[in-house]
Specification:
The complex is a heterodimer of chains A (532) and B (317). With 532 residues, chain A is α+β, with helices and mostly antiparallel strands. Chain A has 2 domains: 273 residues, D-Maltodextrin-Binding Protein, domain 2 (3-Layer(aba) Sandwich); 222 residues, Dipeptide-binding Protein, Domain 3 (Dipeptide-binding Protein, domain 3). Chain A contains 17 helices and 21 strands. Chain A has a 7-stranded mixed β-sheet with strand order 8-9-10-1-11-19-12, with helices on both faces. Chain A has a 6-stranded mixed β-sheet with strand order 14-18-13-17-15-16, with helices on both faces. The relative contact order of chain A is 0.16. Chain B starts with a helix and ends with a helix. Chain B contains 13 helices and no strands. Chain B is an all-alpha fold and 317 residues long. In chain B, helix 1 runs antiparallel to helix 12, helix 4 runs antiparallel to helix 5 and helix 4 crosses helix 7. The chains are: A alpha+beta (532), B mainly alpha (317). Chain B: Keywords: Cell membrane, Membrane, Transmembrane, Transmembrane helix, Transport.
């Protein structure tokens, strides 16, 4: 509160000030929201920011995200694998052709055996290179993988536990680090952290824990058009939003992640560029479907969805959000054609609530879990208070249970039935929805209730199970997209969640930063960027 | 005097043990899970259990404490759960940065605070006294993180004279006493010095004012002693209490300031503590709290010994 007031007071007279002068020449300095440099050994921590700044810069996956387009959601493209296919007779058997001539930063050549070594790093706790820290980040991302082997230097076989057409999406999470470098660093992951080696477009040259990581272009990168144009990329952890903004305004960094919405107009007034774009992020309330939960009534779920004034919420956020029209952003190829329109219609909402037996004279009381902050949570307190007012207007009284972000993650894993959630009937938890598993399956598949997964609300529906089976058994990408559209239509038509907003990943850039195109992805391509 | 010092040193041991138990229990009482920071949010219960066992967090608390204590006696504070790096190294790096900041702030705060306090006490009820009192009250009243932000706006953003954040152009690892680095130190040190200036000035003002009204001062004047000589007596009488206040303030400064280090992104112990709290990084939290607590204990010990050296009555008691 005091910090907010101070910020307003302090910045009030500054709209006319000119921006600080950046000193960089071919060096891009980025102020991250993370409080430390993400894990550098291969499989990064710190969520989306870790993959964005350390994962897809220093490393590659077998299958990468296409970060070249700004006008549609990023799709998958060949990475360290040039092609892949599933066996026609045995749909659990996949063959991957490994790209030839790819060099790690340490000079060693990539082979299929290195991919096997990397899987062991995450999945095989008997392997000498097994790393609990990387495993903690990567193992849960590849639930389909049962076994793997190198058929020859350029051919990899992966066997899945059951037919699973989502495997390529899962593999896009897994970063490939160099076995030769691990050997050279005395088989110590701690030593590798300071001297990592991947195959990515950037080589890390300096690492000061909690302070900075420096990278230079990998001029021998296998994808020559993506060889970075900059001389150097510097990552600086700047978790505090004001410190981040001040660093940009004073010219100590050229780029900051997530500027506070109330500072954006001032930054724009001083010539800084604010970039934003849709990306697969979701800000919803997950609803408890346990016996006795009011959210089991579809009319109440739809009433709540119609009661939220998303345009008003957008004004509150300075336009830095996409109002939800469904669970996926409107531009998603998986959006489909749902018949229930997610919009602001308080009259229709009140009518539905009345039909369900509630209204101004018989108010519905619900309890909601929220956090005051957290990764990807945008501005959870004012946003939830806004929704609380919207719902109160039609007769739904919301009592908040506010917990700190770290504890929120535990309650998200615990599920609605756990005593620790103290009877809360919803949870406001945000996340990536970039692939079929994280976007759909994990939230509502029957057997993924706690402790097996994060089906928080204990939803279980046989039609949905059938659709998930179809997703996993549909290996043709176009046909798979059609199934996912059906899933999304069901999500929206039955109003399975309180669908509110999608983040737009705002970034504030010095006017000297040129050539950046914000992809519709959690990851970004820094290769085309230059500094004037 | 030697016996007194030995006695005070021995008293440090139970205090240190008590601090270690309290800090261990406190960080375990707090809700949250240290593994949350290092596990993907979708990690299954099985994966979480395996990780809990790998970090020894599945053992009973007393066993965990004994392990921690055993390692502590060998100088090993364990490894950070969030980063995997040795806690001792993390804390040492951060403490060095906080130490640099604290000593600089002390060099600003204590001479100014003592001088202002003495002038106000000597010229009590004059315009100078009122001015100093106003400065002192402002010093202790203005939220220092707010002051820090305002200073950043003025001197870093608007005037571009000084940097807004960090401990040097190449990070704190490359610290050298040249202008490129010292300019990073100026704003946080001034901000950190403001509160101690106020506290020391107010304390010394009250002390000096009171001592000047004591009977022995009248007696000294009556004996024909010069103003300067009387002043020396007053200073000696005020020194013990002033030293005590300075010692406490020094301890607080050495402990780092979470807010100021956060505002200036200064990689000190305050920021380390803040990160450890938010990540529930138990080994890092325990190690940092213990080291900071030891700073307080050491600062108090030094002050006690100095007080005894200055004032024989303390030694006798």
């Amino acid at each position: 509160m005091f910090i907010r007031i101070a910020r307003h007071l302090a910045f009030a007279g500054m709209l006319s000030l000119s921006a600080g002068i950046a000193q960089a020449q071919g060096t891009l300095r980025i102020g991250m929201t993370a409080s430390d440099i993400p894990l550098t050994t291969g499989q990064p921590d710190q969520g989306g920011e870790g993959l964005r700044f350390i994962g897809y810069t220093v490393y590659d996956a077998l299958i990468n995200w296409d970060l070249s387009a700004v006008d549609h959601a990023a799709g998958l493209v060949p990475g360290l694998a040039t092609e892949w296919s599933v066996d026609e007779a045995d749909k659990t058997k996949w063959i991957f052709k490994i790209r030839e001539g790819v060099k790690f930063h340490d000079g060693s050549t990539l082979k299929a055996q290195d991919i096997v070594w990397n899987f062991d790093k995450l999945l095989n706790d008997k392997a000498p290179q097994y790393d609990p820290r990387q495993s903690a980040q990567g193992k849960s991302r590849i639930p389909a993988v049962a076994s793997y082997r190198a058929i020859d230097d350029q051919t990899l076989e992966i066997i899945t536990k059951s037919p699973d057409a989502t495997l390529p999406y899962q593999l896009a999470w897994i970063m490939v680090s160099s076995p030769a470098n691990w050997e050279a660093q005395g088989k110590s992951w701690e030593a590798v952290a300071a001297n990592p080696s991947g195959t990515g477009p950037w080589k890390m040259t300096a690492f000061v824990p909690r302070e900075k990581a420096e990278m230079v272009p990998n001029t021998e990168y296998w994808d020559q058009p993506r060889v970075p144009k900059l001389d150097k990329l510097v990552l600086i952890p700047l978790a505090e939003p004001n410190a981040r903004a001040n660093a940009l305004l004073s010219g100590q960094v050229d780029w900051i992640e997530a500027p506070a919405p109330d500072m954006v107009p001032m930054m724009q007034g001083q010539g800084f560029n604010i970039t934003q774009n849709e990306y697969p992020h979701n800000w919803t309330w997950h609803l408890s479907r346990l016996e006795g939960s009011p959210w089991n009534d579809e009319r109440i779920r739809k009433a709540a969805n119609l009661a939220v004034d998303r345009e008003g919420l957008s004004v509150l956020l300075g336009g830095l959000m996409v109002p939800a029209k469904g669970f996926m952003p409107p531009s998603s190829p998986w959006f489909g054609k749902p018949t229930f329109e997610v919009k602001y219609d308080p009259e229709a909402a009140a009518a539905l609530l009345k039909e369900a037996g509630y209204g101004p004279d018989n108010r519905l009381k619900v309890k909601a879990l929220i956090s005051p902050s957290g990764s990807g949570q945008m501005l959870p307190l004012p946003m939830n208070e806004y929704i609380q007012q919207n719902l109160a207007a039609i007769g739904i009284d919301v009592e908040f249970m506010v917990v700190e972000w770290n504890q929120m993650i535990n309650l998200w894993r615990a599920g609605a039935a756990d005593p620790s959630v103290e009877g809360s009937q919803s949870i406001n938890f945000t996340y990536s929805i970039q692939d079929p598993f994280v976007g759909f399956i994990r939230h509502v598949q029957c057997d993924l209730v706690s402790p097996n997964g994060t089906n928080w609300g204990h939803y279980c529906d046989q039609e949905m199970e059938g659709l998930f089976k179809d997703i996993r058994n549909t290996f043709d990408p176009e046909a798979q997209t059609a199934v996912m559209q059906k899933v999304h239509e069901k999500f929206v038509n039955e109003a399975l969640f309180l669908m509110v907003a999608h983040d737009v990943a705002p970034r504030a850039l010095s006017p000297k930063v040129k050539g950046y195109n914000q992809a519709q992805s959690w990851n970004q391509d820094f290769s085309p960027i230059t500094i004037e | 005097m030697f016996a007194y010092v030995i006695r005070r040193l021995l008293l440090v041991l139970p205090v240190a043990f008590g601090v270690s138990i309290i800090c261990f229990l406190l960080v375990h009482i707090a809700p949250g899970d240290p593994l949350t920071a290092i596990m993907a949010v979708d990690a299954t219960a099985e994966e979480q259990a395996a990780m809990r066992a790998a970090y020894g967090l599945d053992r009973p608390l007393p066993v965990q404490f004994l392990f921690w204590l055993g390692n502590l006696f060998q100088g090993d504070l364990g490894n950070s759960i969030a980063t995997g790096r040795p806690v001792a190294g993390e804390v040492w790096r951060a403490v060095q940065n906080s130490l640099l900041l604290a000593v600089t702030a002390s060099l600003i705060a204590f001479p100014i605070g003592l001088l202002l306090g003495f002038l106000a006490g000597y010229f009590r009820d004059s315009w100078l006294d009122k001015l100093v009192t106003s400065i002192a009250i402002a010093g202790v009243s203005v939220p220092n993180y707010w002051l820090g932000m305002v200073l950043v706006i003025i001197f870093a953003v608007k005037l571009a004279w000084l940097p807004a954040m960090g401990a040097g152009p190449a990070g704190s690892d490359g610290w050298t006493f040249d202008w490129l680095h010292i300019r990073h130190l100026i704003l946080p040190a001034i901000t950190l010095a403001v509160v101690p200036i106020g506290i020391v000035a107010r304390t010394v003002r009250a002390l000096v004012g009171d001592i000047f009204h004591m009977d022995f001062v009248m007696a000294l004047y009556a004996k024909g002693m010069s103003n300067f000589d009387v002043l020396i007596h007053v200073i000696r009488n005020a020194a013990a209490t002033a030293l005590s206040v300075i010692g406490l303030q020094m301890g607080a400064l050495l402990g780092g300031s979470i807010l100021i280090e956060t505002v200036f992104n200064w990689p000190g112990s305050g920021m380390l503590l803040s990160n450890a709290i938010f990540q529930r990084d138990l080994p890092l939290l325990q190690g940092t709290i213990l080291v900071l607590a030891m700073f307080f204990v050491t600062a108090n010990l030094v002050v006690d010994i100095l007080q005894a050296a200055i004032d024989p009555r303390i030694k006798r008691s």
